[in-house]
């Protein structure tokens, strides 16, 4: 009787050790689940400067990974309040809370008055109020069409600079 009990106990312990070993060893990689994240539907952030709204960020959904000072956004919309009203939209984004930097990916559109800028990704620096991208851009308005690669927009000064391979058409 003792031999059967010890044999059964040995088999159970061996199986348990094999299960634990296989669970935590996958060619030197282990997967950690993110139990400590928060998410929400209907994200809305307003940034004020001296009592007035400087910009606001709205997204359909947001994920807040614990330990990170960032927010992962889906289907976002950003409104920048300057002399010219700017609306930025994108499919996905990553907002760094401490640095006030928004990185937008996957089909980005920026509307400035009656002009539209299209690109694949861009970065909004909320401290400097500068929009940049290294991707191809198309910038169209009623009287112009500009294409190129790379862009810097200084929002306060209303300066737009296309960095490389610039092609422009201006209409009367």
Query: Counting H and I runs of at least 4 residues, what is the number of helices?
Result: 1
Strands of the widest sheet, in order across it, are: 1-2-3-4-5-6-7-8-9
Helix content: 10-25%
Q: Label the structural class.
A: mainly beta
Polypeptide structure, described:
Residues 24-34 have low confidence and may be disordered. The chain has one helix and nine strands, in the order αβββββββββ. It is mostly beta strands and 172 residues long. The longest helix is centred in the N-terminal third of the chain and has 23 residues, at 2-24. A nine-stranded antiparallel sheet has the order 1-2-3-4-5-6-7-8-9, with no helix packed on it.
SSE layout and pairings?
Layout: H1 2-24, E1 37-49, E2 52-65, E3 70-80, E4 86-96, E5 101-112, E6 115-125, E7 130-140, E8 144-154, E9 159-170
């Amino acid at each position: 009787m003792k031999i059967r009990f010890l044999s059964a106990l040995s088999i159970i312990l061996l199986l348990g050790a094999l299960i634990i070993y296989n669970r935590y060893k996958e060619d030197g990689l282990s997967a950690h689940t993110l139990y400590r994240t928060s998410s929400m539907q209907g994200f809305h952030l307003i940034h004020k400067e001296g009592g007035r709204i400087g910009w606001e960020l709205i997204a359909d959904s947001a994920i807040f990974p614990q330990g990170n000072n960032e927010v992962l956004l889906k289907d976002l919309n950003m409104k920048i309040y300057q002399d010219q009203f700017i609306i930025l939209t994108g499919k996905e984004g990553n907002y760094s809370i401490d640095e006030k930097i928004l990185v937008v990916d996957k089909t980005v559109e920026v509307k400035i008055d009656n002009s539209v800028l299209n690109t694949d990704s861009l970065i909004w620096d909320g401290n400097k109020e500068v929009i940049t991208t290294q991707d191809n851009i198309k910038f169209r308005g009623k009287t112009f069409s500009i294409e190129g690669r790379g862009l810097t927009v200084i929002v306060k000064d209303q300066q737009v600079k296309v960095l490389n391979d610039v092609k422009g058409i201006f209409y009367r």
